[in-house]
């Protein structure tokens, strides 16, 4: 009989549970899709109970696959940001407005003009965007006062899942950094910031902050009966998904850098303190490890761009290997076709902030072929990451994870466009793996996150830059930046017309 640790990943469009043996092998897995409801004014909402039910189903399925193997703990991670509110009884007061929600775009502009954005950045290390808790909270309070008056606690996705598993209302330092945590001294929520934003009442909504690998909470009897997992099984604290992936990749020391390409992009590096950050355009999360912070950029230019073009080109029935084969027919540079990958309803937040950012193609003519349009999307998504890599002054190998990086073509483009070696972990599920790593510490099976990460580590493969493509990609990347600069002045008008025609 083996021991296993389960990692739960509450993603934006899918949730999953993965059981790992204590030497890092995936023993069982199950995932469930969860919908996002989009509105005409930039809304992006999700049913919190539906997410919980999907996770419970995943846990029940995984538990049923374990053949009696002992579960030593459950680790948690999930999508971050947004507003996830419950009432005094722990019931959601409304659907969660998630990180993609763009309805507060005008309020972001107002806050920045009034200096509130600068204050949020100073204290939390985060630039304003529409899906950030403080600004989105105010937007909802202004438009749904009766509903919002019922709010008792803000529980981000993984915190909501822990509450449903254990009855405990708590969060960790990475998620607290997205509300009012002062990342400069990491002692707790900043009353000064709340007062400056006119949101002192919001502090009452924020739960206790715990270290990501801190003391576990026991699984409730009710959930044990629902899932088949023994009552009292330790449930860890966890981290926001972009941060926990570092643990899953073994990147836990200062200076470690990793990239993620999923529903969003991500480029981040661990720093000894906020004073060591490389860019004022970045965001910063306290990790709970002393003064250590994760400096990162999270462009909203992820895999939905690829899903979108797959549908638009009527390639729904094709698998991704076939689609990449078509895209390779265009060759580097896509014959001059440029794609701006700003398709998110919430605009863009890294490495620049613009709630009006819009997707588009340029450089097409009657000679443009389907493969040119298709490859330009791969290149546009990659170029968005390249810009973040250069802004954060990353010069080491690029450790990558996330569903988008299962694409060999994307890894190749990233290597060629940066001149850096791309290192991809062979095993999937880095987020769930990272959650499992932290849970092993919470459950007392390992003394440090470093030791747990070593135990659950996986093998990697590399993509070396092709020198023959260097000149093409230097020119294509510069064209990408020039095209965006030319179109950016008309983005607000594009958004205005979009609203008029809804």
Shape: globular
User: Total helix count?
Assistant: 18
Largest pleated sheet: 7 strands, mixed
Helicity level: 25-40%
Spatially, the strands of the biggest sheet line up as 17-18-16-15-21-22-23
Low-confidence stretches: none
The beta-strand count equals: 23
What fraction of residues sit in β-strands?
A: 15-25%
Average pLDDT figure: 94
> Helices and strands: which structural class?
alpha+beta
**First-to-last CA distance:** 58 Å
Rg over CA atoms, rounded to whole Å, is: 22 Å
List the main descriptive attributes of the protein structure presented here.
single chain; 502 residues; alpha+beta; 5-stranded mixed β-sheet; 23 strands; 37% helix
What's the short story on this structure?
The chain is α+β, with helices and mostly antiparallel strands and 502 residues long.
Layout: helices, strands, pairs:
Layout: E1 3-10, E2 14-21, E3 26-33, E4 37-38, E5 44-46, H1 48-64, E6 70-78, E7 85-86, E8 96-97, H2 105-114, H3 116-124, H4 133-143, H5 145-148, E9 153-154, H6 157-166, E10 170-172, H7 173-176, H8 191-196, E11 208-210, E12 217-218, H9 221-227, E13 234-235, E14 239-240, H10 241-248, E15 257-261, E16 265-271, E17 283-286, E18 293-297, H11 304-312, H12 320-328, E19 338-340, E20 360-362, H13 370-391, E21 398-401, H14 408-418, E22 422-425, H15 430-442, H16 449-455, E23 460-463, H17 470-487, H18 491-500
Parallel strand pairs: 1-6, 6-14, 10-11, 15-21, 21-22
Antiparallel strand pairs: 1-2, 2-3, 4-5, 5-8, 7-9, 12-13, 15-16, 16-18, 17-18, 19-20, 22-23
């Amino acid at each position: 009989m083996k021991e296993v640790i389960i990692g739960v990943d509450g993603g934006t469009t899918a949730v999953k549970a993965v059981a790992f043996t204590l030497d890092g092998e995936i023993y069982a897995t199950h995932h469930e899709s969860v919908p996002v409801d989009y509105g005409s004014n930039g809304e992006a909402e999700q049913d919190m109970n539906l997410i919980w039910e999907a996770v419970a189903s995943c846990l029940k399925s995984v538990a049923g696959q374990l053949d009696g193997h002992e579960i030593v703990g459950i680790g948690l991670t999930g999508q971050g940001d947004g507003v996830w509110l419950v009432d005094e009884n722990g019931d959601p007061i409304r659907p969660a407005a998630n990180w993609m929600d763009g309805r507060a775009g005008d309020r972001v502009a107002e806050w920045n003009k009034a200096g509130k954005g600068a204050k949020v950045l100073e204290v939390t290390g985060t630039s304003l965007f529409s899906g950030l808790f403080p600004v989105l909270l105010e937007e909802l309070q202004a438009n749904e006062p009766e509903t919002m008056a019922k709010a008792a606690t803000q529980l981000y996705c993984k915190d909501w899942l822990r509450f449903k598993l254990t009855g405990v209302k708590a969060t960790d330092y990475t998620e607290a950094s997205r509300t009012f945590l002062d990342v400069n001294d990491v002692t707790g929520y900043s009353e000064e910031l709340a007062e400056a934003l006119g949101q002192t009442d919001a502090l009452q909504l924020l739960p206790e902050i715990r270290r990501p690998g801190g003391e576990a909470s026991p699984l409730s009897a009710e959930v044990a009966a629902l899932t088949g997992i023994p009552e009292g099984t330790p449930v860890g604290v966890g981290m926001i998904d972009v941060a926990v992936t570092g643990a899953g990749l073994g990147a836990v020391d200062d200076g470690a850098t990793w990239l993620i390409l999923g529903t969003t992009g991500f480029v981040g590096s661990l720093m000894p303190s906020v004073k060591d950050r490389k860019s004022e355009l970045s965001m910063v999360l306290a990790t709970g490890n002393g003064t250590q912070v994760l400096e990162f950029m999270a462009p909203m230019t992820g895999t939905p761009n690829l899903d979108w073009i797959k549908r638009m080109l009527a390639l729904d029935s094709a698998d991704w290997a076939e689609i990449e084969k078509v895209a390779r027919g265009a060759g580097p540079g896509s014959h001059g076709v440029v794609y701006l990958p700003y398709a998110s309803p919430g605009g863009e937040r890294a490495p620049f902030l613009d709630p009006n950012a819009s997707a588009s193609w340029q450089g097409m003519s009657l000679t443009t072929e389907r493969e040119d349009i298709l490859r330009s999307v791969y290149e546009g998504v990659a170029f968005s990451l390249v810009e973040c890599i250069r802004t954060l002054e990353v010069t080491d190998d690029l450790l990558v994870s996330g569903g988008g990086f299962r694409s060999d073509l994307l890894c190749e483009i990233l290597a060629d466009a940066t001149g850096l070696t791309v290192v991809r972990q062979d095993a999937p599920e880095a987020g769930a793996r990272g959650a499992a790593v932290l849970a092993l510490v919470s459950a007392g099976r390992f003394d440090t996150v470093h030791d747990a990460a070593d135990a659950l580590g996986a093998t990697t493969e590399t993509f070396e830059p092709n020198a023959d493509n260097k000149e093409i990609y230097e020119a294509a990347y510069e064209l990408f930046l020039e095209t965006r600069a030319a179109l950016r002045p008309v983005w607000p008008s594009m958004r205005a017309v979009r609203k008029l025609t809804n």
